[in-house]
Design brief:
The chain contains six helices and nine strands. By secondary structure, it is of the alpha/beta class. It has one domain: Glycerol-3-phosphate (1)-acyltransferase (3-Layer(aba) Sandwich). α3 links the parallel β3 and β4. α1 crosses α2. The longest helix has 22 residues. The radius of gyration is 17 Å and the shape is globular.
């Protein structure tokens, strides 16, 4: 009899443990304080914009697999990142992502399990939800094709969004101390506005924080509102 495969899309409050946060801290230390500084000069700005008294959604642009670590290093809070479900097909990678408190998401459809997991993240009162609004990695320095899922979740959870701009690792640098990596934290984006306005504000802020980036506003006028729930986000 085959062993039942673990469901990585559903997370209960009890899944967000102190042990997983400690594993996150170890991962951040290993990547952000040991590996990255050997290849990049790292600059953090806007850290004063990080709230200390509430939950929020951490929403960076996505240019490399370093992003969850540097975003976490900037925010310095436990973050449960969404990751595309395909990443969890590899048993070793799934084990590591699970240990880091990531959970799987179907990027083609915003499923009920995703909403329930988001609710459980916020119920912890300690963990933040991490979402990459553009979905997969985008290295063309254009903020475009932004998925609506993060704005839908923000409104449903009544939770503001923290925009985090990341630039400098669009191409990996393997020459010691030659790269420049910049992580910028913007002011909170209020959930208490229209979905398209949330998306527009996030896109504009990321482009403004990232030198050389361009925000291209998508024309969403013809999108059926019911289709919003069929768009989501992930690593």
């Amino acid at each position: 009899m085959s062993e039942k495969k673990k469901n990585y899309t559903k997370r209960d409050v009890s899944d967000f443990t102190e042990g997983k946060y400690k594993f996150q801290l170890f991962g951040r230390w290993l990547v952000s304080r040991t590996l990255i500084p050997f290849f990049y000069k790292v600059k953090y700005t806007g850290l004063e914009n990080i709230p200390q008294d509430r939950n929020f959604i951490v929403a960076p642009n996505h240019i490399s697999y370093l992003d969850p670590f540097v975003a976490g290093e900037a925010v310095k809070k436990p973050i449960a990142f969404m990751g595309k479900k395909e990443l969890f097909n590899n048993d070793i990678l799934a084990f590591l992502l699970d240990g880091l408190a990531c959970f799987a998401v179907n990027r083609e459809k915003l499923e009920v399990s995703t909403i329930k997991t988001a609710i459980n993240v916020f119920k912890t009162q300690k963990w933040m939800l991490g979402i990459f609004p553009q979905g997969g990695i985008r290295r063309n320095k254009k903020i475009e094709k932004i998925n609506k899922g993060f704005a839908v979740i923000a409104k449903q959870m009544k939770t503001d969004i923290l925009p985090v701009g990341i630039t400098g690792s669009e191409q990996y640098n393997w020459i010691p101390f030659k790269g420049n990596l910049k992580i910028s934290v913007g002011k909170l984006i209020s959930y208490n506005q229209e979905i398209d306005d949330i998306i527009d504000e996030w896109g504009r802020k990321i482009a403004e924080m990232n030198d050389g980036y361009e925000y291209i506003k998508d024309n969403n006028d013809n999108i059926n509102k019911k289709d919003i729930l069929n768009q989501t986000v992930g690593i």
